Amino acid sequence: MRSKFGFKMVLLNFIFLFAFSTTLFAQKIDLSSGAKVEFDAVGKPAMINIKGTGSKATGVLSFKDGSADGEFVVNLKDFTTDMDMRDEHMKEKYLEVHKSDFGKAILKISQKVEALFPQSGVWNPQNLKGSLTLHGVTKEIPLNSKINIKDGSAKGAVNFKIKLKDFNIEIPEFAGITVADEVTANVLIDSKVSP
Q1: Which of 140, 78, 136 shows the shortest CA–CA distance to 108?
Q2: Which CATH superfamily is domain 26-194 in?
Q3: Backbone angles phi, psi at 19, to 5 degrees
Q4: pLDDT given at position 10
């Protein structure tokens, strides 16, 4: 009789410790402490490369029990391509940032992932997807992520490609140069990790 009771106590303790340890290792990255977004667009002729920089990402990305949840919010008005006239065309004519729903881009992530977020090491999950809202359109897109975690800091990137036509954005043309339909976006992370 005692051995059954002892076994049940050991089993209950194990279950308790396992449940406690999975919650204990929940972590989050506060993007406000150091994340920015850049984009690369290839022009036609192909030797032209347009890089947009300067926009900060805000939000929190949380990892718990094998799930990644959170969102990145980016103010599109903050992007610059280092050419005032081109910036004005990009923001006003193509992204239409003056419209209330078009001034921000939002990327949401909420899914189970096979790669658990480590206390220290590299987080590089496969088949990661997000829901991107841009220019009034929401669409699921594949994401590539590689984040290095060390000493309470996360450094790395989440990147993805978007087709402008999928988000009802007219193909930009400026001074006889058009931009390819596919644009690469990079969320560069250099942030603190907290429980």
Answers
A1: 140
A2: Lipid/polyisoprenoid-binding, YceI-like (2.40.128.110)
A3: -60, -40
A4: 42
Given a contact cutoff of 8 angstroms between Cβ atoms, the answer to whether 53 and 79 are in contact is yes
> Which sequence spans correspond to the domains of the chain?
26-194
pLDDT tens digits, one per residue of 98-126: 998 899 999 999 999 887 788 889 999 98
Q: Which amino acid is located at 106 in the chain?
A: I
pTM above 0.85, yes or no: no
Q: Mention every residue, 6+ apart, whose C-beta is less than 8 A from residue 162.
A: 132, 134, 141, 182, 183, 185
Please choose, from the candidates 194, 190, 112, 109, the residue with its C-alpha nearest in 3D space to the C-alpha of residue 148.
Answer: 190
**What burial letters (b/e) apply to 109-146, b meaning 16+ CB within 10 Å?**
bebebebbbeeeeebebeebebebbbbeeeeebebebe
DSSP string computed for 55-86: EEEE-EEEEETTEEEEEEEEEGGG-B-S-HHH
- Given the DSSP bridges, would you call strands 153-163 and 104-112 parallel, antiparallel or unpaired? unpaired
